[in-house]
From TrEMBL, chain A:
The chain crosses the membrane at residues 6-25, 37-58, 64-84, 93-111, 145-161, 189-211, 217-236, 243-260, 266-288. This is Nucleoside ABC transporter membrane protein. The keyword Membrane applies. Pfam families: BPD_transp_2. It is found in: Cell membrane. Keywords: Cell membrane, Membrane, Transmembrane, Transmembrane helix. GO terms for molecular function: transmembrane transporter activity. It comes from Insolitispirillum peregrinum. PANTHER family: ABC TRANSPORTER PERMEASE PROTEIN (PTHR43370:SF2), SUGAR ABC TRANSPORTER INTEGRAL MEMBRANE PROTEIN-RELATED (PTHR43370). InterPro entries: ABC_transp_permease.
UniProtKB/TrEMBL annotation, chain B:
The lineage of its organism: Bacteria, Pseudomonadati, Pseudomonadota, Alphaproteobacteria, Rhodospirillales. Residues 1-37 form the signal peptide. It comes from the Bacteria. It comes from Insolitispirillum peregrinum. GO terms for cellular component: plasma membrane. InterPro entries: ABC-Purine-Binding (IPR052910), PnrA-like (IPR003760), TAT_signal (IPR006311). This is Nucleoside-binding protein. Keywords: Signal. PROSITE patterns: TAT. Residues 42-310 form the ABC transporter substrate-binding protein PnrA-like domain.
Amino acid sequence: MDADTLALTGVVMAMMRAATPLIFAALGEVMTEKAGVLNLGVEGMMLMGAVAAFTAAVTTGSPVLGLVAAMLAGMLMALLFAFLTQTLMANQVATGLALTIFGVGLSAFVGRDMVGQTVEPLAAIQLGALSRIPVVGPLLFGHDPLVYVSLALAAAVWWFLRRSRSGLVVRAVGENPQAAHAIGYPVRLIRYAAILFGGAMSGLGGAYLSLVYTPMWIEGMTAGRGWIALALVVFASWRAERVLLGAYLFGGITIAQLHLQSSGGLAVPSQILTMLPYLATILVLVLISRDETRIRLNAPASLGKLFHPEG
Amino acid sequence: MAMGPFRNVSRRRFTALGSALLAGALAWGSLAPVASAADPLKVGFVYVGPVGDFGWSHQHDEGRKALEAAFGDKVKTAYVEDVPEGADAERVINQFAQQGFDLVFTTSFGFMNPTLKVAKRYPNIKFEHATGYKRADNVATYAARFYEGRAIIGTMAGMMTKSNVLGYIASVPIPEVVQGINAFTLAARKVNPKVQVKVVWVNSWYDPGKEREAAEALIAQGADVLSQHTDSPAPVQAAEEKGIYAFGQASDMAKFGPHAQLTSIVDNWGDYYIARVKAAMDGSWKAIDTWDGLKQGMVHMAPYGAAVPDAVKAKADEVKAGIIAGTLHPFTGPIKNQAGELVVKDGETIPDGQLLTMNWFVEGVQGQLPK
């Protein structure tokens, strides 16, 4: 295996790492939005997940418990959001923004003593001979466990929403809650569940940052990834398989531009390369918006609207 | 962080809205009523980031603590953290003034105009603005010559590299960052003319994930010593994992890379704050501009890592001593630009004014300056 192939393998693996936290958070938000709820608090839930995962991993020494803590923390934040928007009928956009602001502050507060601590990162799976196959080995078998979990979850969310009966109910609740309610489905309960799933996934995305990607806790370490995940959901037109594609594209461009700079290969200003993921989003948005049926088929019709069972 | 003209760089780390609300909340919390029993000098600090950022604001707060330790109950300090650069900053600074603070330090470039505005309203209160260039009768400015520290770490990197490729993770293309890259490169090539410095811009002051990926991209290109001008310890941590060397930034980051960190350029504001408070107490305070470095202790080097050989320590100490004694200036010619043209003649030194507007790379830097 020559040096170039080795380097390229490294770049592709870095792209997959960069995409993984986005995949978790965006898959969760797909579920939430498919149930008709817009939760803009992803960044806040991710930060709480990151700090909870790190704190739990440092105090117990177990990264797995860290992941559990991250999901619980994300779900707690989501529960707060669900209570405010589903039970108290607060505006979803305002509540979501508040959740992010709250998460930024709260995670900084509870993580004060964690700054500067170190934790043993979640190690890559080593499958002996399999991982040592040139190129294919590391690409298929050389990742940390969460990369595989993210891929499995993307498949699971796809199957759930497109193929399962329960998924059909979730979509029905997102399309027309009145009708779903009339047939006897517990709209509010289903939305609570979808929101909690979104919280757990955001928490996992945050945990990936603080336990695997950059194993440390620092305030605001998500650095806007929650917002990218939200954009990704629209980019993917609410489909799990496209979330995967979009996340790898976003992660890929970010990583590719850093490698292009260091290899001195391309004379493109780095600011333009930094903008590329966002330009790509806008481009895709324009393209899919031209085809109205595509948008209409996938965007949940009642997204962000309040549902009063009495009404 | 930034100093001199040409900048409108924001050092904000979080969402604008988040910081705005947080700052609002904290402003009320931190500015609790101040006792005036023995009539202590009241000193206020405005930080752009959280004190727990392990970088810029953290170091300013260390300075504030040094002040309290030095003067005891003769001073009363207070701070507001996470203040966004903009309208909110003016409100926070104004609040300090209204509460009768005697001396207020505003510690980010973007606080320049708000500081001047409030200072105009309160001519009897003294203000000090970090890294800016606008002064008034009651507004002094101060900044640190971090490039002096970069000359030391460049020397060390040049001696310790085996691949002759050094990696540099750069934040945003302002003169201060360019100065750092050039000082690092010049010093490294002085001890090892074969050295090339690869620069990767992450276009952010703080994004641990991106900083880490930039570090890995540089390592993939053969860099075996990393330097950074971004604020998170992620690159030092990456270097530790990959078994190469790195230099910390703003604070001692040895915790994140006990083997990797060779040393760190540490911002040390404490001595300056103590001197200025003393001046305010004895009436000798003037609205001057301060640009101090190693000599005055404003730029400070963390202890050498275990991996640094004695010969490298000796050379680094020599550079440090030379800079402190004034016999060595990191920007003394001959200096060639990237195109190989001689821009500074042998024995000539780039004057401060040109350093403050530096927008070109020296020979040996690989990568372009985004314009």
